[in-house]
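Per reviewer request, we include the raw input and output of the structure prediction for the construct analysed in the revised manuscript.
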Amino acid sequence: MNKNRRKRLVVEALKNRAEIRGLIGQYDAAIMEYNLVLRLVTRNEWSTRIDIMLRISGLLVAGKSDLIGARKLIDKVRVMSNTKKYSALDARISNMLGIICRRENRYDRSQKYFQRALAIYTRLKDNAGIGAVLSNIALLAFTRGDYDKALLNYNKCLVMEHHLQDLVSLSVTFGNIGLVYQAKGDYDKALQYYKKSLWAAEKSGYKMGIAMAFGNCGAVHENQRKYQEAIEYYKKSYTIAKELGAKRQVGIASGLLGRAFMKMNEYIQALKYLKIAIAVFRDLGDNKRIALAHTHLGITYTKLKRFANAMQHLQKAERIAKEYHDEATLATIKSAITDLKTLQNRQYT
């Protein structure tokens, strides 16, 4: 085997392994292996370099919340490629910029980027690209509270994914539709779609999808105040995520377990899992979820009548939520501080 062929095989193996690591939430490991690919390929292999840089950009957004780092990589790609208008690369960059703008709460700008990407992919008859952008348009609509538009676009995704026989994407889309129905308060419909998501993930061997589906099923049961059933699903999600080394899902499952145990008045277990969640999300830089975990810790300590600890965590949560203009979490924190002060006053009167 000659040297060039050996290098190509190594590059392909690293790319495939990095893609799998990204799918299961091992973002740091995936980025590290993609960077190894960049070291192996020459500067003349610009198409491979651009592909890898855009993959890293996506991981920086999804796994690290590093929007600045992602933008810098996209800017480098633009300079390297002298991107042609209406090309597949133009569509891919527009889609990535739409995702970044959505994370920055710049929703109108995000919509423009997504519409541009969709128009280009439609012109190129790229069904996979069309499906990816439709999913992002649906998520943007969901974020803005337009649930009907979100469902419309997610159902368009399903058509594309059935056509492509893409079970992994089907699992994700079924789960996303479940999230919309859950937000609408239709828990039966939500659970129906979460179970479809679980079916697609199990059939394709997509273990990260299985972990997410278990977590989503648990959330429905928690909303229905079936806390024991919720905990059973959350524990399954947590166990799979731990086995995969999927840090973000470990954090999500830990936060959900902590919240459910708190609601069941099992405060020691609640503290244990909420502290795990904070450690994970701090490492990932996910400030929104850090604030939420601190909020639930504050509520738990209030119930334990450890008021100083409670206020400490609620104030930490408040600082973070204010910095990121997280109004929903701020409202929860305000209510929790009021409850704390009320209980504290009763204690000393």
